Structure formats: C-alpha cells, structure tokens
Amino acid sequence: MTNSNGFNFNFEFENGKVLTINRKKAEHMLERNTNNRPVNQARVDQIARDMISGDWVFNGQSVTFDTDGVQMDKQHTLLGVVKSGVTIKMPVFYNVDKRAKRTIDTGRGRTFSDNLGINGELHSRTLGSAVKFLYLWKHGKTLNNTSGGKIPSMAEMYEVLGENPKIRKGVDSIMTRHKGVRLYGSNALFSTLYYLFSKKDHDSAELFFEYFGSGDGLGVANPIFSLREKLTKERLNNTHTRVGSWWVGAMTIKAWNAMRTSSTCKGLRFNPVKEDYPRIK
C-alpha cells in the first residue's frame, strides 16, 4: 500500500495480520481474555456508540495474544464489537512476549483537551472540560460528572463542540474578564454557565458574572450576594475536599434565575434529595 506521499506500507506482519472482526469472531477472541483488568462498562458503551454512529476510527492499535494464547489488550474494543454488532478491521498479533503486558496502557492517554491544544485552541484544558459539561447538560440537564456513568467519547465531544462553537467565547470571558469567579469553582464550570446563560440573554449574563466576580455594590437581598456568601461559606467549611461542581452549578443557576425574575434572595438552597436539578430561565 502506498500513501499520498509515495511511502510504501507493508502490512505483512511477523506473527500477525489484519483481520475482519465481526461479533462472532470477537466473542471467540474474548474467550481467551482470561487475565485482564476489570471491564469498564461505560468505556464499552462509549466504543459501541461510536461504532454504531460510524465515528469509531481505527487508530493503528492492535489486538494482542501472548505465547499461551491469552488475550493481552483491546478487550474493550472487542466488547464494543459484540455490543454494537458492527464489523471492524484490526491488526491481530500472536505469540507476543508475556512481559510486554507490563508496558500496555501504562502511559497517560491523550485527552480531548490535549487534542484541542495540539489543534491550536486557546485555553484548551478549560475548553475541553467545558465541552464535557455541555455534554452532560445536553444528555441529562445536569452538571453532575458522575450522573449515569456515561463517558463521552472523543467523537461525541467533538460533536458537542461543533454544535456549540460559541462555548469558546464563554471560556475566553471567564479566563480574561471574570477571573474573580475562580474563587468559587472551576473555570470550566463557569465558562459553561456563562455560555448557557448568554443563550438566554447575553447582556444579563455579562452583568451577572461581572457582579459575581467583583461583588461591587451588591445589597444583601441580591441573589448574587447570596451566591457569593453561600459558596464562600461552603469553601471554608470544606477545606479538605473540593465542593462538587454539580452543587456549585445548581446554586449559580438558582441565583441567575432569581436575578432574571427580579426576585430578592437572602439565602440560596439546593437539596438534591427533594429537588430536581434547576433549569435555566
């Protein structure tokens, strides 16, 4: 095979070959998956969703079996084939030295934020996390990172970014003009909320975060004053643990909603046992 630059690729491997892997063949290979790490079902679901949508792309990695025929790698990919029923092509290597297993998946995986940085995106770490918050909001109207155990795939994250290109402006706003809010939560969370609030009313969102960050001129009955007081108290009372973004997000949405309806507020509360996650008004 020759690529566009005229470089010749030889796909004849020693102890390996490219195979077409359907559900039946994947199930057969998985019978040899007798000594591997525990299956991450959320990861299997993620891969299966990408396969069904056509977003799964072969990245050069292979299924491997050691000298005893025991599968060493790519159990989640094969389980994704079984769940989705999609047929794929992958290299499969046999008779690999057992010691090679010590080196499999030991490096840090490339994250969505890493890819954004490689592509030249500004504030890539914050942008990547903000896109994940948008994914959570899209699929559950919540900002809880642990809700449902659903992990977005790389393709799904790019899809959300493509649907919401102006999230970049939300990130830029928090990273440049409204740095004061960093005392109360993550840049990514507030970037996401700035963007979602702006979709309702851009000028009001700008004003909300200006007062949220500075606190200038806020009366005690102002919901933004109550928000700052509540988050400060929680931060001081939880010196050894980080206050959850889902809770900070809920309180911030409540303050925004109160401001939008011109409601006075001397205290903000959110009880997830008794309340649904607040909607943005």
Write the layout of secondary structure elements.
Blueprint: E1 16-21, H1 23-30, H2 41-53, E2 63-66, E3 71-73, H3 75-84, E4 88-96, H4 112-118, H5 124-140, H6 154-163, H7 167-176, H8 187-200, H9 202-214, H10 223-237, H11 245-260
Parallel strand pairs: 2-4
Antiparallel strand pairs: 1-4, 2-3
Helix pairs in contact: 1-3, 2-3, 4-5, 5-6, 5-8, 7-8, 8-9, 8-11, 10-11
Q: How would you describe this structure to a colleague?
A:
The protein is an alpha+beta fold and 281 residues long. The protein has helices spanning 23-30, 41-53, 75-84, 112-118, 124-140, 154-163, 167-176, 187-200, 202-214, 223-237, 245-260; strands at 16-21, 63-66, 71-73, 88-96. It has a 4-stranded mixed sheet with strand order 1-4-2-3. Helix 4 crosses helix 5 (124-140).
What would a concise description of this structure say?
The protein is α+β, with helices and mostly antiparallel strands and 281 residues long.
**Number of DSSP E strands:** 4
Assembly context of the chains:
single chain
- What value does the average pLDDT take? 86
Shape: elongated
Q: How many angstroms separate the termini?
A: 57 Å
List the strand order in the largest sheet.
1-4-2-3
Which structural class is indicated by helix and strand composition? alpha+beta
List the helices and strands in order. EHHEEHEHHHHHHHH
Q: How would a textbook summarize the main sheet?
A: 4 strands, mixed
**Poorly predicted segments:** 1-12
The share of residues in helices is 40-55%
- Relative strand content: 5-15%
Number of helices: 11
